[in-house]
Amino acid sequence: MTHLVNLSNKIALITGASRGIGAAVAKVYASAGAHVILLARNVSGLEKVDDEIKSSGGKATLMPVDLLKLDALENLGPMLYERFGKLDIFVGNAGMLGTLGPLAQADPKEFEKVIDINLMANYRLIRTLDPLLRASDNGRAIFVSTGAGVTQGRGYWGAYAVSKAGLETMARVYADETAQTNLRVNVIDPGAVRTEMRKSAKPGEDPMSLPAPDDITQEFLNLAAYNCTKHGEIVRIG
């Protein structure tokens, strides 16, 4: 059972919020009192999550954004500043698996696309959101990665492994640079979760043997809490 922390008056931005882990985190943050900003490309998915949040009395803002349009992401921070003046929680959850297979046979365009979504988009978001996170009394940046076996160089995982390893290193760099501030930066490895991405990566696996996204949100709450002391860590679930 999830135990809520108090996120009243907090502003939280979640990428990849139209389904899966992102949607689950957005809903649990909203139930804890946060105003959640739902960012994804899939408008219909965002609207569904928005309906669920508002039907439960929560507050949400929809932000349909294509993370592949990297230059456009630079405008996000100023837009949010005009409306909210700060950002308390940023969850960099959006990700792309890509085609698994031998590295030497990877399609260059798809390889670049995976790197852009999983790594470069988060870099651009750090650039534009950093002033807003620092404006918060207790800023939190949480990045979603994957299992250690993949990020340490598992064969046939190609751009996904490369991008997630880069994401973890980037988060550590950002954490080191913000060590003397109120901002806390961490990474979550959610483990095996019942998502569409997991289904694509492991098509022979029984999805019902895995936890649902709603079952793994507690650590996202813990890292968003005002009394969180973890910083520069990779938190592994499961």
**Total domains, how many?**
1
Which structural class should the secondary elements be placed in? Answer: alpha/beta
Order of helices and strands: EHEHEHHEHEHHEHHE
CATH homologous superfamily (4th level) name? NAD(P)-binding Rossmann-like Domain
The fold-level CATH name is: Rossmann fold
Overview of the structural elements:
- With 238 residues, the protein is of the alpha/beta class.
- The protein has one domain: Rossmann fold, CATH 3.40.50.720.
- The protein has helices at residues 20-31, 43-55, 70-73, 76-84, 108-135, 148-151, 158-177, 196-201, 218-224, and strands spanning 11-15, 35-40, 59-64, 89-92, 140-144, 184-189, 234-236.
- The protein has a seven-stranded parallel beta sheet with strand order 3-2-1-4-5-6-7, with helices on both faces.
- The mean pLDDT is 95.
